[in-house]
């Protein structure tokens, strides 16, 4: 009976705050350490290397950084993906068609396959399908599709923080558009796979043109949602979110009890 009051008296508000901070950090980091690194790890302000050479849809060898002479949307997919890549490319074509920024003049799009087995011929086929969905701008030169070898692909993925995992003939992977400045600096990530706001794309292009980077609000969503490899989509992580909420409520209640206990103790002494 005397243990709990004694324990409560020894805890200070500062110690409790530290416990709360450590608990929240553990709650966020622990699930990540229990699984393979997969998803998007933002590298804002990093600059891509100047020796990344890919093959475009016309079999031209292209130095990626040298080809970036305007704000560039980098879209990482694999062309024969049965899951989220097609919706992502459709969403990209849709927002490019809706925005008042002119493709090929104000910005350009680089779609790069992270499957080294895919060829420039397949890249051309995909370009033909998606470029025709954009009714204004220069899709011929403004939206380019690339293939590459495994070494170059993996270097690019590492530099932009795009982590994938191959399972059989398919890949488990995230979905995002990565904005690059004319100097090849990563300035913003636009997360999603089915819809992008024209305003968001416009602001990302304007910021990239100035070399300005901005934090991604969707980082909160990345914590709340996890990628489902079977359904090939992001799903709400009930366990992680509810566990964090319960932990915060429990520690808040404990803090409240300590504060009330200290107030009663002071009143009694008075």
Named at the architecture level, the CATH assignment of the largest domain is 3-Layer(aba) Sandwich
- What does the overall shape look like? elongated
CATH C-level name of the largest domain: Alpha Beta
Q: Fill in the CATH topology of the largest domain.
A: Glutaredoxin
Strand residue percentage: 15-25%
Q: Whole-number average pLDDT?
A: 82
Number of strands: 13
Spatial strand order of the main sheet: 3-2-6-5-4-10-11
The tally of helices reads 10
Number of separate domains: 2
Supply the CATH superfamily name of the largest domain. Answer: Glutaredoxin
Share of helical residues: 40-55%
Describe this structure in words.
- The protein is an alpha+beta fold and 270 residues long.
- The protein folds into two domains: 65 residues; 180 residues, Glutaredoxin (3-Layer(aba) Sandwich), CATH 3.40.30.10.
- The protein has ten helices and 13 strands.
- The strands form four sheets. Strands 3-2-6-5-4-10-11 form a seven-stranded mixed sheet, with helices on both faces. Strands 1-7 form a two-stranded antiparallel sheet. Strands 8-9 form a two-stranded antiparallel ribbon.
- Helix 2 runs antiparallel to helix 10.
- The longest helix has 32 residues.
- The radius of gyration is 24 Å and the shape is elongated.
- 31% of the residues are buried.
């Amino acid at each position: 009976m005397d243990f709990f009051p004694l324990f409560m008296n020894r805890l200070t508000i500062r110690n409790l705050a530290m416990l709360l901070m450590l608990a929240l950090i553990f709650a966020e980091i622990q699930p990540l350490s229990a699984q393979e690194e997969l998803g998007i790890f933002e590298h804002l302000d990093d600059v891509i290397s100047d020796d990344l050479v890919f093959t475009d849809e016309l079999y031209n060898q292209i130095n990626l950084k040298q080809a970036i002479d305007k704000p560039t949307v980098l879209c990482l997919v694999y062309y024969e993906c049965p899951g989220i890549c097609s919706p992502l490319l459709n969403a990209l074509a849709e927002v490019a068609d809706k925005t008042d920024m002119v493709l090929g003049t104000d910005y350009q799009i680089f779609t790069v396959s992270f499957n080294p087995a895919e060829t420039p011929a397949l890249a051309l086929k995909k370009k033909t399908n998606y470029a025709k969905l954009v009714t204004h701008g220069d899709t011929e030169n403004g939206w380019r599709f690339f293939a590459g070898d495994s070494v170059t692909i993996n270097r690019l993925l590492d530099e932009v923080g795009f982590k994938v995992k191959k399972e059989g003939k398919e890949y488990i992977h995230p979905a995002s558009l990565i904005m690059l400045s004319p100097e090849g600096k990563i300035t913003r990530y636009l997360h999603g796979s089915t819809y992008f706001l024209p305003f968001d794309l416009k602001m990302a292009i304007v910021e990239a043109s100035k070399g300005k980077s901005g934090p991604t609000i969707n980082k909160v969503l990345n914590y709340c949602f996890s990628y489902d490899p079977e359904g090939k989509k992001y799903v709400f992580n009930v366990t992680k979110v509810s566990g964090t909420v319960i932990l915060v409520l429990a520690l808040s209640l404990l803090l409240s009890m300590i504060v009330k206990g200290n107030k009663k103790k002071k009143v009694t002494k008075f």
